[in-house]
Amino acid sequence: MKKFTLIITMAILELIFLYGIGFSQTQSESIYQKVEGVWRMDKTKTIMNVKANDKIKIDEMSESVKADFDNSVQSRVYRFNRDKSFLATWDFKGKAQSVSGKWEILGDGSLRIIFPNEEKKYYVIIDDESLELTPHIPTEGLFHKLFFTRSN
Questions:
Q1: In contact, 98 and 89? CB cutoff 8 Å
Q2: Residues pairing with 71 in the sheet
Q3: According to the 3-state scheme, what is the secondary structure of 77-139?
């Protein structure tokens, strides 16, 4: 009987180590692995989710202002690096812009980006090719949800 118990125990341990049975990832580890990488803003989805009164503001922009706005949104790229550094880049009026900080996934699966003078927290919806970020605290800006597609 001891030999049988030992064989069963060894088999279970082998399954655990070979296939990871019994060692599931936490939600934050899983989201961390999915978020890591380069994401380009999806201009169409992001603008489609603007509130109606903000959509009117966009529609009323002059041609040159609208062109600058469109380019700024279209060129926006978020980089979530393995070392947990963060870099957002975009063009505005033909000039490269950027902001950097640190990022982390919180225990509840939220994303926190820490900048030198502030931090922002987002609810995250993610799959292999798309990322949706919704601020915990609604912003004063036009965008209340940010949509991205994987770029790497």
A1: yes
A2: none
A3: EEEECCCCEEEEEEEECCEEEEEEEEEEECCCCCEEEECCCCEEEEEEEECCCEEEEEECCCC
22 φψ region: left (φ > 0), alpha (ψ -120 to 50), beta (else): left
Domain limits, the chain: 25-150
CATH number attached to the domain at 25-150: 2.40.128.280
Please state, in angstroms and rounded to a whole number, the distance separating the CA atoms of residues 3 and 16. Answer: 20
Per residue in 91-131, pLDDT (tens digit) is 999 999 999 999 999 988 999 999 999 999 999 999 989 99
Q: State the pTM of this model.
A: 0.78
Residues 6+ away with beta carbon under 8 Å from 148: 39, 40, 41, 42, 78, 130, 131, 132, 133
Contacts for 42 with CB less than 8 Å, ≥ 6 apart: 130, 147, 148, 149
Could you tell me what percentage of the chain is helix, strand and coil, using 3-state DSSP and rounding each to the nearest 5? 35, 35, 30
Q: Are 26 and 114 in contact (CB under 8 A)?
A: no
